[in-house]
Amino acid sequence: MKTKSIILAIVVVLVISSILFLETQKTKPDTTIVNGDNMTKNNTNLAPEFQGIKTWLNSEPLTMNKLRGKVVLVDFWTYSCINCIRTLPYINTWYEKYKDNGLVIIGVHAPEFQFEKKVENVQNAVDKYNIKYSVALDNNHQTWSAYQNRYWPRKYLIDKNGIIRYDHIGEGGYKETEKVIQKLLREIDSNVETSTVKLEDNTPNTKNTPELYAGYKFANSRNQKVSGEVIDPQSTKEYVIPTNPARDEINLQGTWTASEDGLVAQTNGTILLLYKAKAVNIVAEIASNITVTHDGVKREVQIIKPALYNLFTGEYSEHRLKINVTKGFKLNSFTFG
């Protein structure tokens, strides 16, 4: 009986040890995944085909199957995302540096807001940011879902056999990413240099106010409020700026109509925002002039087309932002840097 107890205890210890080991191998959602060389022989990480893409910019339609033998960088992005925008100088430079060595870059544009589904808006962004590589418009997020993605931006590096060998979520990691590009290019006998791109890394290293959404789809799922209240879907209501407005929260004055991806002013109105960061950006889509008062300094900002606009860049601190808007203005979100 004693022997059986000892054996049982040993089995329990081994099981617990195995579980603990597996737990340490799980990848955190905000880290980089670098797969080992054995992945070239393992088709379980085969890159999915592009799905639901009706429009391609800068190239004819591409398929992963036809790209066998090349190294492919798939970058999920959307053009009003500040995190995505800050990565573009690196991606553009990698394209110019390695396009003749066998690197193919495909920017899968997966829209966050409805206006980002319009081809002309994406084309304007492609021109603005001087993007020369292929851009696939994933308006229904079918390719996004095929890759089981949940983040903007996210980069996948795929080797000559169509296997995902590298996966990076978010900004930063540029040197590490480029080293993997070089490694995979050498696997197709491409003679590439070992030096890496030297550009300014603008990835924030401070604890900023989180992105704040005005549309109920994203705001409510993140427990974000407007003037201290949950946004009622498809409602039109009069908002009042609280006597003691909360920091890291959109505060409104006036009558606004809620939609899935933003709030539309039905009267002239005011937006008040108390935040902490070096920079604040607004995403808005209705052409209009707005009056911005930042820490007591007033200026006019022209919203020309649906996009992200920087309102202030300066010292990392707590700031006070007030915006006076006219009827018809649509607010989508605020982002910070």
The general outline is elongated
Number of domains: 2
Percent helix, as a range, is: 10-25%
Please work out how many helical segments DSSP would assign.
7
Q: Please name the CATH architecture of the largest domain.
A: 3-Layer(aba) Sandwich
Computed CA radius of gyration, to the nearest angstrom: 24 Å
**Low-pLDDT regions:** 1-32, 34-42
| Structural classification | alpha+beta
Element order: H for helix, E for strand: HEEEHHEHEHEEHEHEEEEEEEE
Which topology of the largest domain does CATH recognise? Glutaredoxin
Q: Estimate what percentage of residues fall within beta strands.
A: 25-35%
Extended strand count? 16
**What's the CATH H-level homologous superfamily of the largest domain?**
Glutaredoxin
Distance between the termini: 66 Å
CATH class of the largest domain: Alpha Beta
What does the largest sheet look like?
9 strands, antiparallel
Overall pLDDT score: 89
What's the short story on this structure?
With 337 residues, this protein is of the alpha+beta class. The protein has seven helices and 16 strands.
Describe the structure.
This protein has 337 residues and is of the alpha+beta class. It folds into two domains: 27-186, Glutaredoxin (3-Layer(aba) Sandwich), CATH 3.40.30.10; 212-336, Galactose-binding domain-like (Jelly Rolls), CATH 2.60.120.260. The chain has seven helices and 16 strands. It has helices at residues 2-25, 82-85, 88-98, 119-128, 142-146, 174-186, 216-221, and strands spanning 33-34, 55-57, 71-77, 103-109, 134-137, 154-158, 164-169, 212-213, 236-239, 250-259, 262-265, 269-284, 288-294, 297-303, 307-325, 330-336. The strands form two sheets. Strands 8, 9, 10, 11, 12, 13, 14, 15 and 16 form a nine-stranded antiparallel β-sheet that branches. A hairpin with a 5-residue loop joins β6 and β7.
